[in-house]
Amino acid sequence: MKKAIALLTTAVIFAAYSITAMGKSPSVGYVLVGPKNDGGWSMRHHDGFQSLKKHGYKVSMVEMVPEAESAKVFLKLARKHDIVFATSFGYMDPMVKAASKAPDTIFMHATGYKGNDKNMDNYVCHSFQARYLTGIAAGMLTKSNKIGVVGSHPIPEIIRNINALTIGAQSVNPNISVNIVWINSWFDPPKDMDAAKALLDAGNDILFTTTDSPSVVTLAQSAWKKQGKEVWSMGNDAPMGSNGPDRYVTGMIFNWNLLYKHIVDQLAAGKLKMNQRYNWGLKENCVGLSPWGKNVPGTVVNKVETVRMEWINDNMDEWYPFSQGITKQDGTRVSAGEIKRPQLETMQYFVKGVTNKFPTN
Question: Where do the domains of the chain lie, and which CATH numbers do they carry?
Answer without folding.
Answer: 2-125+256-280 (3.40.50.2300), 127-253+288-345 (3.40.50.2300)
